Amino acid sequence: MVPQTLLAMSLILFLGLNTFLVAHANYLNQDIDITWGDGRGNFLNSGTLLNLTLDQSSGSGFQSKAEYLYGKVDMQIKLVPGNSAGTVTTFYLKSQGLTWDEIDFEFLGNISGDPYILHTNVYTQGKGDREQQFYLWFDPTAEFHNYSILWNPSHIVFYVDGKPIREFKNLEAMGVAYPKSQPMRMYGSLWNADDWATRGGLVKTNWSEGPFVASFMNYNSDNACVWSIDNGTTTTTPCSPSGSSSSSSSSTSTSEWFSQRGMDSSSRKVLKWVQKKFMVYDYCKDKKRFWQGLPVECSTKKKNQNKNKNKIKNKNRKS
After folding, report:
1. Where is the stretch described as Disordered (predicted)?
2. Which one in 95, 136, 158, 269 has a CA-CA gap of 20 to 30 Å to 318?
3. Which DSSP category does 47 fall into?
């Protein structure tokens, strides 16, 4: 009698767990279209997993069905394992046209045993050259990790597993262009870039190691303003013109990220820790490249750093 009772309870628990998982599954095929690769991109597990494949003939890629004008988007990614030299896996936002805006995560592969380089960039009106690169503090090929972009009227923040790694502020008042009027789609891809990706192109893709596969899951755009034109009128949903959600159920979370003007002290500490320990390239420190003078936003960043140092010195003197 007891074994039968335990069996019945186990069956109920199993069925309940399956129902929970189905109800909470994130179906990528509802939000994403595979746009290129001739069959090398595939939805698996009923649409909850997306695999991109790269072989010697082609890579593959996808894009979101919706366009966004501001938002916070998240994607869990597991990168190409083993010898990934020459390959690039991407997750980014981009608008259309010759003067496009773009916010990039690019993962540059490497030979076995050497770390990936996370390459970030911000384009405004078709101009980039704002690269910051990082090593990661974990193996990004062993399991899925979460990568996020927050884009609001005040700043852009890149996150890895919830940790801020980079901030790009709106400094239009100082003449620095900022993405604010062009809607962007989310894109992802896996492609061959062995002319530059690994050690500046010195290490080429080893095709005998292929085909290469990167995996994506749990795309979240709930906190993004979907841009659309209805009868000639531009609207953003769920964001209202005031920056809060038009849906009462998500108004709190939407207003939090949309109205955020900067990072709090704890987030800024994490940002400093990441940049001190894991940043391997910062365009704002590349005086050889910008021999005629660093970009305006770089001098502003340096001034803020000096202000913070002076505050600490004054505080220490008083104590």
Report:
1. 235-259
2. 269
3. G
- Reported as a single tens digit per residue, the pLDDT across 40-76 is 999 999 999 999 999 999 999 999 999 999 999 999 9
Distances (CA, A) of 149 to 97, 216, 305: 21, 15, 24
pTM for the whole structure: 0.85
Which member of 67, 102, 131, 297 is catalytic?
102
Q: Give the three-state DSSP class for 155.
A: strand
Distance CA 96, CA 126 (A): 10
- Per-residue pLDDT tens for 277-316? 999 999 999 999 999 999 999 987 655 555 544 444 554 5
Place of tokens 């005031």: 242
Helix (H/G/I), strand (E/B), else coil: 253: helix
167 tagged catalytic: no
Query: Whole-angstrom distance between the N-terminal and C-terminal Cα of the chain?
Result: 73
Asked whether 170 and 298 are in contact (CB, 8 A), the reply is no
Residue 229: the pLDDT is: 64
Residue 40's closest CA among 213, 210, 198, 157? 213
